[in-house]
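ARCHIVE CARD
Drawer: 12
Card no.: 0347
Subject: one protein chain, sequence and derived structure
Cross-reference: see card 0346
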Amino acid sequence: MIQYDHFQLDNGLPFYVIHDPTTPMAAVNILYNVGARDEVSNKTGFAHLFEHLMFGGSANIPKYDEPLQRAGGDNNAFTNSDITNYYLSLPASQLETAFWLESDRMLDLAFSEKSLDVQRQVVSEEFRQNYLNQPYGDVWLLLKPLAYKTHPYQWNTIGKEISHIEQAELQDVRDFYRRFYNPNNAIVVVAGNLETKKVKQLAEKWFGPIPAGENYQRMLQQEPVQTEARELRVTRDVPQSAIYKAYHISGRGDKDFYTVDLISDLLGSGQSSRLYKSLVRKQQLFSEINAFVTGDLDPGLLIVTGKITPGIDADNAHAALEQEIARLSEKPPSAPELRKVKNKAIATNIFGELSLLNQAMSLAFYAHLGTPEIINDIPKMYEAVNPAALFEHAKTVLRPENCSTLFYLSEKN
């Protein structure tokens, strides 16, 4: 059971404090309510670019990393379609250093043409290396716009195209910062052997004077229900052909999310999953196969991916894959089969929360969903799923007309 306290500053910045008396370390996680879905279609990749800029120095701290390293800490960050998340660990006795660093870049980030140019080049090179010049690197650049036609999930966090980053201007970056990087658009979680009273004193000292920004109201185009199967075939210089299937599912905060997560585990999580046993081990049509959910806040995707065994016809492999997927919507799983994937999901959750930093990240995320208390209830969510409910949901999700399929074919084959 994760114990935590909660308070909120007058400027709207919420704080959560997790108590762990067993460690001398502290973890600080700051979640900003901005991701790739908040970009406009002709200026994508900004949320990720801005994550890089946040480490370029603020008004009173030229180099973010140096004071943190002197205090014995380290840090990192990530951006996805929904949020931008910054996190750090350091000795609990140095907590004020973390508050000083994070409050200064929330208040007044340093911008210059030079820093923007440096980060433009860094992110552009990342785009080239990881997405354009990497085998299978452009899969998500192809699959997401195939599955989404109106919602901004249609572009990846890196952006739709490299030119959007290369052409980013300083005023664009300033506007992005003023719109999203405000205390009333963030959540702070502090974890460690700390007293809430002391954390609140430091919070009021360092974050309290920062003025609130305008309340951000997200107005996104909702993705219409997909009514027919979609398909895209491309040929690339890769060692094996592959198939990627994307089924529309509910959002992360929906009560059915845990059901569809177990559906993905039954299909393709590990060597005991249905797809692996049938298509890899028995029929040897695929050399590897996996299934997972994206976990997006808005309605997301259940993804099935498979590398086709060399020499196997892609259409034959796909037909066998669809046949095996359809089995889950024709008959409920047995109680022992469902029990197995439940145990795995629950164990993954429990072991994942042993880390102080992971606890801070998780609590920030569930607080962002508006349900921080759910951090202690995830095992119950999985336990509540029964074979009949999973079967009914599988029939709804695993329909061909709800699916977009990418055939990623090897030139060699």
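Annotation on reverse: The CA atoms of residues 37 and 152 lie 5 Å apart. The domain at 230-410 is CATH 3.30.830.10 (Cytochrome Bc1 Complex; Chain A, domain 1).
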